[in-house]
Amino acid sequence: MSRRSPLRPPKRLLLAAGLGLLAARRALATPYNLSGKRVLISGGSRGLGLALAREFTAHGARVVLMARSAAELGRAAADLRDRGATVHTVTGDLTVAADIERAVEETARVYGGLDVLANVAGLIQVGPLENMTEEDFREIMEINAFAPLRLTRAALPLLRASRGRVLIVSSIGGKVAVPHLAPYSFSKFAVTGLGQALRAELAREGVGVTTVHPWLMQTGSPRHALVKGQVKKEYTLFATLDNLPVLSLDTTVAARRIVNALVRGDAEAMIGGPALLMRYAQALAPQLTADLLALSNRFLPGPSTGDRAVPGASVETPLTQKNPIKQAAEAEFNEGGSVTPGREGPS
Fold first, then answer.
1. 32, 111, 184, 235: which is the annotated catalytic residue?
2. CA–CA distance, 317 with 304 (Å, rounded to integer)
3. Which residues form the signal peptide (predicted)?
């Protein structure tokens, strides 16, 4: 015979009620109003960073763009000002602590504070694991994982004061590891964990954190990727998949969905139907997903004898050069200039 009092509800009922209250609170939460907000975007000069800057400013936000190239920043700023946006630029390298501090301080000086930090800049390396070195893994971790950590920590005093928001751009590669993108997935799994940790710890201080996981996007950025192995084959495959109609996402649409996820206050958001399908496949059938990915690797180019990385732009082929979607994306998102390998806006 149970000793539980008939007046005391079962623990499972209490848990269900608590979860229901949390869900109701979330559903009734007021969307975050971006009008007049001050937004710092790393990797904001081109690719997804530029697309997000357009979307933020379309909501009435004022933006600061940080990137390494002053020329690219100048073109991006002109693009945004032509659209009626308020924009300021900071030239700096995310691997340099003084540059990170300066970007945050400059945002506060120009706009009087900071409301949203968008961690967008990313490095991507393409090629077989056999051709990747430990240094490749360390280099990509610096940009894709440690840079968002350092920039967020530097910005936290301002974000606490404004009860602001943090956006972390991860990838479907941060949920499902993809062959020939081993260092990239390694770093994106790390930044996904960072986003979850920040979300849990900063909520009590009024700072919201949203981590997004985009599918392939037509950003025009493959030419900045670092390629190893049989470089022409690797790059042709990567650049083609990144710019296939239906399979890859329109970058403007992806940027809108990302900003909407931030406005709603989502903890995580999968951007694109294929990303959502891969997430559920990994969660519900991890063995099958692993087997299918292992099978797909059999059809990819094999390793080469050297470990030298080259920028994608140096191994263009007629097939990639004449791809109209790729050409349009490069022109639309400021990707057609001189190549600074890997950074300022992930694919």
1. 184
2. 19
3. 1-29
β-sheet bridge partners, residue 89: 65
Tally of structural domains, the chain: 1
Question: What type of residue is 341?
Answer: P
Q: What is the DSSP annotation of 204-225?
A: GGT-EEEEEEE--B--S-GGGS
pLDDT tens digits for range 146-202: 999 999 999 999 999 999 999 999 999 999 999 999 999 999 999 999 999 999 999
Q: Half-sphere exposure of 233 toward its Cβ, with a 13 Å CA cutoff?
A: 11
pLDDT tens-digit profile of 53-96? 999 999 999 999 999 999 999 999 999 999 999 999 999 999 99
* Domain range for 51: 34-332
> Domain of 127: which CATH number?
3.40.50.720
**Bigger pLDDT: 251 vs 345:** 251
- Sign for the pseudo-dihedral over CA of 99, 105, 111, 115: positive
What pLDDT does 305 receive?
A: 87
Please give the Cα distance from 293 to 300 (Å, whole number). 11
Task: Please indicate whether residue 280 is annotated as part of the active site.
Answer: no
Give the Cα separation of 213 and 265 in Å (integer): 15
